[in-house]
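User: Sequence in, structure out. Go.
Assistant: Echoing your sequence, followed by the structure tokens.
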Amino acid sequence: MSTHPLWRPYEVPDQETTDEAFVAGAEPKVEGGVTVVPYDPAWPLTYVQVAQAVRDTVGDGVVALAHVGSTAVPGLAAKPVIDIDLVVADPADETSYVPALERAGFVLRIREPEWEQHRMLRLDVPMVNLHVFGPDSRETHRHLLFRDRLRGDVADREAYGALKSALAHQDFATVTAYNAAKAALIYAIYERAFAADSEHPHDPRPIGA
């Protein structure tokens, strides 16, 4: 059986694990449910502005930056939060980038050494989740693959947008609970992206198989 190098087994986000990753304690509760809004054409410009601020702040420590997540997909409904992947030489060396980013207004929210040394810093104005990974991270490549799949496939983009908009009417206590409700469709979209990748053969791996 051929398996795409970016494939991961199906997993549903776990609230307890997420809570343990939050630097200041458990994940904050969402008041009034998760907000999902129609696509805003200003989001790419916001990314460019924030990305330049990150480059100015971290300097030569920036290996790569990318706009990922739903706000990076034209026409897709999304939470109004810009997701950015920042690649640095060593995410575990927080002294090399966290203090500088904190001076620029970011706050370290998540530390996950066991998940490719992932860190996440939050900026409130504009709302940004800055995800930090290392050069060898597979997750950054997965994020780009998922983004590009949604950009190029109308059916997957519409299905994902419809699910997100429907879930926004439900009373999720945390973003993790909301993400868990999306997990099955996200996995299915990845499966189709893997199957469409001519450079890496991939046999379907249905959930539970």
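User: And one key feature?
Assistant: The chain has a mean pLDDT of 96.
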